[in-house]
Amino acid sequence: MNKEYDKEYYKSNKPKIQEQNKKYRETNREKMNEKEKNYRESNREKINAKLKCECGCEVMKRHLKKHQATKKHLDKVKNIDSSVQ
Predict the structure, then answer these.
(1) How far is 66 from 33, CA to CA, in rounded Å?
(2) Does the pLDDT value for residue 46 go beyond 80?
């Protein structure tokens, strides 16, 4: 399909599409919840994966951005940079 056509179609039919999506979510709520639950259970390791941050801390992937904004991270990175120079 053509991306431009899709964008135009969505723009011109936005209220209709939103209503259809809302109806689908309401009628299939339990089915969607079950799919999400199965996904979380089967991908637990992937979801909770921990990474080694540049400051040396071990952080969950989903919390990395939040961690990088913390004072702890900024202080450690600053110390690392000052010790390298």
Answers:
(1) 27
(2) yes
Same domain, 26 and 15: yes
Distance CA 40, CA 34 (A): 10
* In contact, 48 and 63? CB cutoff 8 Å: no
Say which DSSP state 8 is in: H
pLDDT number for residue 41: 96
Strand, helix or coil for residue 51:
strand
Domain that holds residue 55: 51-85
| Maximum distance among all Cα pairs of the chain, rounded to whole angstroms | 61
Contact call for residues 70 and 57 (beta carbons, < 8 A) = no
Report the distance separating Cα 71 and Cα 35, nearest Å: 38
